[in-house]
Amino acid sequence: MRAYDIIYKKRNNGALSKEEVEFLVFNYNNGEIPDYQMSAFLMAVCFTGMTDDEIFYLTSAMINSGDVIDLSSYGKLTADKHSTGGVGDGTSLIAAPIAASAGVIVPMMAGRSLGHTGGTLDKLESIPGFRTDASKKDFFEYLDFAGAAIIGQTQEIVPADKKIYALRDATATVESIPLICSSIMSKKIAEGAKSLVLDVKCGGGAFMKNLKDAKTLASKMVETGKKFGKNIFTFVTDMNTPLGSCIGNALEVKQAIEILKGNLRNDLSELSIELSGAMIFSAGLALSVEAAKDIAQKQISSGKAIEKFRQIIKTQGGNSKVIDSPDSVLPKASRSVKIKTAKSGFISQMFARDLAIASALCGAGREKKEDKIDYSAGIILHKKVSDFVKEGEVLAELLYNNSDKTEEAAQVAQNAYVISDVAPAKHNLIKEVL
Ligand code: URA
């Protein structure tokens, strides 16, 4: 078998066999197939797609590139959540401690920034000392000790996703239903959680731009998960506007801390309660979703959720003083530029993707696989959709250190706002629950 022939077949819309998919993943993972051939294959998948069988073969091959964790000793209690990628989407940082503080065991294998979207691992690594590169042994210890572990793909668990994920990020091969489905589901199946809560993002700031594609992705993930015996709860949520009031790694950690302390309520906290409620319900710790959401809310008001976050950070080697004084522990940008509105009116649109690109230009994202992220860089969103703004008012503030692309970033951010004379119609954050 040759990688060339497999790429050729996929490019011409052929359906690959189990053996062909396994050959490609196995040999890419062990270094026999170079990045350029895998990139060509990924691009072919972006253009021609995959059948359900091929998606299953790809997911299985990625799972089999490493070990599968057995968490059956925890019974029904294991539940995780995963988003298909958004902007300002720090829900994992909030939902994981809420659910874990309510007794859910959360084995979370998360991702780094991908395309224009942010990644939970990068956000957590902005906390000095926080380790996401755990071994299998560490993973079990974190779960035993804190009831949650938030780690990345490793040499032992889904190593193929680790390599392919980084390659997709640098080769514009992210927006593909089969690739997103197999990437997410391989991690989620290998990590061993019994239940999964999926947040499929939909809109201009998501990889799925419309409801039809988002629902197709959701159904592919559910079908794949069911083949592996997973219990799945799926939300399709809006990602036209960024969630919360900031974009960027350290900024989003600080915001998550404020939400977990009960000091801040916004669309991000609202969605985090929905997702952690679904995790609590799926784990069998509440009789209904509504009761589970009440529990989630109480974990915040009682202080248990923020204490759980402190414990997770400490267990994974992070400086847990970040909980008491985020400003003195998290990295801070030395420079800033304000984006002001040129006219008065209602903010009718804020293009999430453009704002994410502006944040990346400030240093918060990667352009190449090897790039280092500036954890302190990003954007503070002073205003959101529906707010009325007066001419000259500050819409957002870009934070950066050494980036030489801030002029471009400011221009992109400025153009991300649409100001109208009439207030926009209210949009639903949760579009569907499947
Ligand atoms: N999250 C992942 O883990 N993989 C993707 O492809 C997209 C979002």
Automatic annotation (TrEMBL):
<keyword id="KW-0808">Transferase</keyword>
<protein>
    <recommendedName>
        <fullName>thymidine phosphorylase</fullName>
        <ecNumber>2.4.2.4</ecNumber>
    </recommendedName>
</protein>
<dbReference type="InterPro" id="IPR036566">
    <property type="entry name" value="PYNP-like_C_sf"/>
</dbReference>
<comment type="similarity">
    <text>Belongs to the thymidine/pyrimidine-nucleoside phosphorylase family.</text>
</comment>
<dbReference type="InterPro" id="IPR035902">
    <property type="entry name" value="Nuc_phospho_transferase"/>
</dbReference>
<feature type="domain" description="Pyrimidine nucleoside phosphorylase C-terminal">
    <location>
        <begin position="346"/>
        <end position="420"/>
    </location>
</feature>
<dbReference type="InterPro" id="IPR000312">
    <property type="entry name" value="Glycosyl_Trfase_fam3"/>
</dbReference>
<dbReference type="GO" id="GO:0005829">
    <property type="term" value="C:cytosol"/>
</dbReference>
<dbReference type="InterPro" id="IPR036320">
    <property type="entry name" value="Glycosyl_Trfase_fam3_N_dom_sf"/>
</dbReference>
<dbReference type="InterPro" id="IPR013102">
    <property type="entry name" value="PYNP_C"/>
</dbReference>
<dbReference type="GO" id="GO:0006213">
    <property type="term" value="P:pyrimidine nucleoside metabolic process"/>
</dbReference>
<dbReference type="GO" id="GO:0004645">
    <property type="term" value="F:1,4-alpha-oligoglucan phosphorylase activity"/>
</dbReference>
<dbReference type="InterPro" id="IPR018090">
    <property type="entry name" value="Pyrmidine_PPas_bac/euk"/>
</dbReference>
<dbReference type="GO" id="GO:0006206">
    <property type="term" value="P:pyrimidine nucleobase metabolic process"/>
</dbReference>
<keyword id="KW-0328">Glycosyltransferase</keyword>
<comment type="subunit">
    <text>Homodimer.</text>
</comment>
<dbReference type="InterPro" id="IPR017459">
    <property type="entry name" value="Glycosyl_Trfase_fam3_N_dom"/>
</dbReference>
<dbReference type="Pfam" id="PF02885">
    <property type="entry name" value="Glycos_trans_3N"/>
</dbReference>
<dbReference type="InterPro" id="IPR000053">
    <property type="entry name" value="Thymidine/pyrmidine_PPase"/>
</dbReference>
<dbReference type="GO" id="GO:0009032">
    <property type="term" value="F:thymidine phosphorylase activity"/>
</dbReference>
<dbReference type="Pfam" id="PF07831">
    <property type="entry name" value="PYNP_C"/>
</dbReference>
<dbReference type="Pfam" id="PF00591">
    <property type="entry name" value="Glycos_transf_3"/>
</dbReference>
